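Box S1 | Example of a co-folding query
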Amino acid sequence: MRVLIIGGSQFVGRAFAAEALAAGHRVTTFNRGVSGTDLPGVEAVRGDREVAGDLERLVSGRHWDAVVDTCGYVPRTVGASAAALSGHADTYLYVSSIACLPDWAQAVRPVDDDSPAHDCPPDAGPDHADGDYGVLKAGCERAVDRHFAGRTLHLRAGVILGPHDTMRMLDAWLWRMRVAEGEHRRVLAPGNPEVGMRLIDVRDVAVFGLDCLADGRTGAFIVNPPEKNTTFGELLTECVKATGSAAEPVWVDEGFIAEHGVSPWTDLPMWVPDTARDTLVWAAGAPRARAAGLACRSFSDTVRDAWEVVRDRPVPELPLAAGCGLSLSREKELLAAWDARGGAAAG
Ligand SMILES: NC(=O)c1ccc[n+]([C@@H]2O[C@H](COP(=O)([O-])OP(=O)(O)OC[C@H]3O[C@@H](n4cnc5c(N)ncnc54)[C@H](OP(=O)(O)O)[C@@H]3O)[C@@H](O)[C@H]2O)c1
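Box S1 (continued) | Returned holo structure for NAP
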């Protein structure tokens, strides 16, 4: 296949480029050349998807079997790309998100492949619905449908991890384990280690998407591991194993976490209180994707390969970024408060 990747130099787009090249496809990438490096072997076209002239230059004299849009967040922008590409590509794969399903985003009930998406117009701008990520992703799907009716593939991905991740939630835990020495050897581990999760490897998303394109599939697919593929306890254990850390996880119950104003997901990446687990992303299977051949590698491989990418980088200051982990000093205070209570939540 001839494949155009909008993006292509970072995380999800990079994985699509790598897997497409490995499968023998011809790959064009389209990005501004500011935030990543294109893989050797691709035809790299420089340009900004928000600039009409750049899109015109991209499509001039070119035709692809498929577009893979990995960096669409605003319906109006995605619609402009789809309009420009409609006579120049056969199929449009849009990397959407499970967050486009309101029942998921609002934690109302488990979602499935037939859950309705948010109601967002296809020409919405970035401020629509206060810029809500999931609402806008639903609008982006509609913007693509408008120009590629019956020729669209929407991948509604859950939480994606793996090598070259830019969200850095897994990196936050890997680095935390890496620095677990001396006074920081004890690591605050939240809630119940047995809570099951579904975390999908970026390479499995890419292989699945490319296989769907090759098979001529269209429609919307939740892209999540069909079964829960790890637990929070295993996540931390895998990070300890990958980094060769001497970390000692201290399991702190969720009542204590809530009382001390520690924020799920941001202070403790990928962690949500157990009470919400059945209504959040961990509950959503992917029967349609499984039937279409989605295969997921072991979670252990995902953690190991993600670590290989960052292991030789200098240890960053923790937390990695706003919204990605606790500072070491705050964590130490929390563990001292936990110890003072005798290692148990208030009754
Ligand atoms: N991470 C998750 O858990 C998760 C879950 C579900 C869905 N998703 C979806 O996965 C997708 C991919 O995310 P990501 O983190 O890999 O990529 P990203 O950060 O959204 O995109 C980065 C890529 O897009 C290019 N790009 C950005 N702005 C551009 C522009 N105006 N014109 C042309 N190219 C542009 C970047 O290159 P330049 O900056 O050099 O232009 C880079 O190649 C997103 O659509 C996200 O909604 C992610």
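The chain has a mean pLDDT of 94. The pocket of NAP is lined by residues 7-13, 30-36, 48-50, 70-72, 95, 97, 157, 159-160, 166-167 (CB under 6 Å).
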